[in-house]
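quick one before i forget lol
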Amino acid sequence: MTTAAASSPRTYQVRTYGCQMNVHDSERISGLLEGAGYVRATEADDNPDVVVFNTCAVRENADNRLYGNLGHLRPVKAKHPQMQIAVGGCLAQKDRGEIVRKAPWVDVVFGTHNIGSLPVLLERARHNAAAEVEILESLDVFPSTLPTRRESTYAGWVSISVGCNNTCTFCIVPSLRGKEKDRRPGDILSEVRALVDEGVLEVTLLGQNVNSYGVEFGDRLAFGKLLRACGDVEGLERVRFTSPHPKDFTDDVIAAMAETPNVCHSLHMPLQSGSDDVLRAMRRSYRAERYLGIISKVRAAMPDAAITTDIIVGFPGETEADFERTLDVVREARFSSAFTFQYSKRPGTPAATMDGQLPKQVVQERYERLIACVEEITWAENKKLVGETVEVLVAVGEGRKDERTGRMSGRARDGRLVHFATGANGQRGDAGRIRPGDVVHTTVTYAAPHHLNADGEPLSHRRTRAGDAAEAGRAPRTPGVLLGLPTIGAPAAAPAPTTGCAAH
C-alpha cells in the first residue's frame, strides 16, 4: 500500500440500475466500502477512485446501457490510471468474464451471491495489477449480515429473503439470484428495530416473492405472522412489502394487513397479463379469476387499499383477444398505478425461443393503448381523493418541480405521491420548518393520473427523529459483519484505555 493511499482515503461512487433489491444491495455495497475505509465521492467529483456499477439484467437494453457507460469511463481511467471500475449485480452474474473481455479496463467483476467480497477483490486487483472476476453459484453469506449505509433517514429496506423458486418463462432472475433463501424472523425483526432506533419511521420488507416466505423452515403462514410482529415494534409507523406472487397469496396475509395498524393499506401485486392463455405460457400458476378474487378480498377487508401492479405487453403468442382481456382485468381491478413493460427477449429464458414473437409495431401500439387505459383509471381513482385529508411522510427527491413550485413532496399511507404546499409553516424559522422525515396532514386539492396536489396550508406538522437526522445530515447505518475484510486509508486510532476513571 502506498503512502498516498494510507494518508488520503480513496473515494467511491455506486451507480445503480434496476429493482428495489438492487437499490438495497447498493446500500450494502456503500456500507462495505465505508467499513473498509473508503469515503463517498461528492456529486462534483468527476474522478472517484472507485466506480461500482450495480447492474440489472431484466430488460433487453441492460447490456447496451452497461457497456455504453463503461465506454464513457475508458478515457477517464486512461487519464487516472489509479481509478478502479467494478461491475456487480445480475448482469455481472450473467456475463461473468465476458465483461472483462469486452471492457478490459474493468478491474473487478462480482456476482449477486458475493457482494461481501468487493473490498477484497478491489485490493487484490490493485495489488496484482490485474482484473479479478469472482462469481459464486450460491450465497456466501446472507447479504443482510453485511454493513449497510442507508440512503434515507426515514425509510429503510429490509430483506426477508433472496432468490426465487418460481420458473416464469420471461424471467432471468431465478438463474441469477438463485433459489429462495429465507432469513429467520428474529434476525429480520432485529434489523427492523435497529432501523427504528436510528429514527426510521417506515420499513419495506423485500423479497422476490414475499408470500412464499417461510418455505425454508416449513411455515406457510410465516409472512402474515411477520407482518403482525412488525406491528409490535414501538416507533415503527409504516410497514410495506414487495412483491407478493398471486399464487401464494393467502387470506391470513390480508387479515394481517387489515388488523395491524402500522401495515399500510397498499399492495403491489404483479398481474403480468389478464389472459389465462398468456399466463399459462408465462408459467405464472394463477389465472385472472384467482387474481381478481384476491383483489376483491383485499378491498372487502380494506376499502381504502391502493393496489398497484406490473403488466407485460407483447409476450410471444399474445393475440389481440389476449390483450383485450388484459384491458378488461385492468378496468375491473381499478389499479392506483401500474408499471407497464413491452416484452423484452432475454437470452437464456424459455420465452426467448418461443414461437409467436410479435413485431415491434404491434407491441408498441398495444403498449400505448394500455397506458391510456391505465391512466384513465388512475386519474379517476385519484380524483375521488380530492377534498380528503392525507397523512404524508415527507420525502427527498420525489418532486422534480418542488423548487420551482414551492411545494414539498412525500408519500401518503397508501403509497400515492403527494405534492403539498408548505404554507406559512415553511417560513416560520427552524421550529416550524418542514423537513424530510417529518409527517404532515394536508387536504388534497387536485388530482393527476400519477400524483395528488395539496395546495392549502397543512393541517398539522409533526417533527420527527427522522427529520432531525435529515437536518443533521445523518443517515442510518446498520453495522452487519465485516467478515475480516481489508481496510484502506489511515488506521483507526487505538481505543482509549479503560483503566482507572475511564472504566467507570
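fyi Confidence is low (pLDDT under 50) at residues 1-6, 425-429, 481-504.
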